[in-house]
Amino acid sequence: MNLNLYGHDGAWLMVDCGITFERDSTRIRPRVQTPDPQFIAERKDALAGIVLTHAHEDHIGAIPLLWERFPVPVYTTPFTAEVLRRKAAGRGGKIPSPIIECIPGEEQTIGPFSVRWLPITHSTPDTCALHIRCTAGSLLHTADWKIDETPQVGPGFSADWFTAAGASELDAVVCDSTNAIVPGHSISESIVRDGLLKAVAACEGRVVVACFASNIARIHSLIDVALNTGRYLGLLGRSLQTMHSAALSVGLLERSKRLIETGHLGYLPREEVLIVATGSQGEHGAALQRLAAGSHHELELEPGDTVILSSRVIPGNEESVERLLKRFRDQGISVIDGDSALQPVHASGHPCQEELASMYQWSRPRLAVPVHGEQRHMKANAKIARENGAQMALTGENGDLFYLAPEPGLRRKVAVVGRLEQDEDGRLSAVPPP
């Protein structure tokens, strides 16, 4: 859920504040869960501001639900700001005010902190790492990232930002660990675009591509695929339409004549239809689930059509995704996923081992603090950091306090941590510990 707090000189800076969903629920619609912000809520007068690194739900989703507990300015890039406004309004949540839009490359002073926004590539656009400085020292907070020189939307990855930060003598790098056990290098969105083009070109009936709604580059690629295969593209799912509209409004996408109203899809010849759909994790009520059940009001699939899963299965969702894909197969609808595809149809948004090594070589931190992953991922990240120049690496758990400068250290269980859960009436209450 990615609620990070940096403290200095009696002030705090919050970086990201996301949501997750309850696991092992008997409810058809799992409840939304947020971090319990008790630690900072008790110190809200010391909170200087909230910084959001990118538009994924596990980084911004709790802001409309929690912002009134500490109403301070929110700083983020234009696309993330637009997504935040739309999601808050769509869910009846509180839209933060003010939202201060920050252009990648610029610097903001927030209380005692100086924050420079470093453009970095990820699976949603306008993602930024943060170079945070104060009188005690400086650090790099990578956020979620990968190295992609041809990301399809937005500028390609540039190491210059990170070598410059390293030249300033960083006290610490707080770094994404999600793919730290994966050898090699993640693949580019341009390779996925080519893989999807070949996969769709080989299909004869309708084609449905399921992906994460926030992956604007994937939408851009599929518009291009539609153009090159003589198909028209439709977006099925409210979150997809919200993300596409937000990207249009900030100039990340241009309107395409290949993109049509979803109500027209059913009137086209099958070989002219390409659909992007939500629900790649088997979510109840999502477009893909309704297509599998034959209950979507705008389109019905038939034998000979194809579903392409252009996403990874999030751990814990394996059974629901397999049940969903089995329903398609039982109806004579072909299924292509990452394992069965002849060409790459998905790319991770997180760095593999070679990319992590490069980041540490560029940034040259005294201390590495791996985050964002399970313990095995963080320990693997720490090993890579030490092998590539970091003098020290510290791993911890939720609630631990890391001293980053002037002397590194770690205190366990300083902050009370837990989860809040939103009920059907929108109220938040504490989730009992397991």
UniProtKB/TrEMBL annotation:
InterPro entries: Metallo-B-lactamas (IPR001279), RibonucZ/Hydroxyglut_hydro (IPR036866), RMMBL (IPR011108), RNase_J_2 (IPR042173), RNase_J_b_CASP (IPR055132). The keyword Metal-binding applies. Keywords: Exonuclease, Hydrolase, Metal-binding, Nuclease, RNA-binding, Zinc. Residues 1-185 form the Metallo-beta-lactamase domain. Gene3D superfamilies: Metallo-hydrolase/oxidoreductase, Ribonuclease Z/Hydroxyacylglutathione hydrolase-like. GO terms for molecular function: hydrolase activity. Its EC number is 3.1.-.-. Pfam families: Lactamase_B, RMMBL, RNase_J_b_CASP. The keyword Zinc applies. PANTHER family: RIBONUCLEASE J (PTHR43694:SF1). This is Ribonuclease J. It comes from Congregibacter brevis.
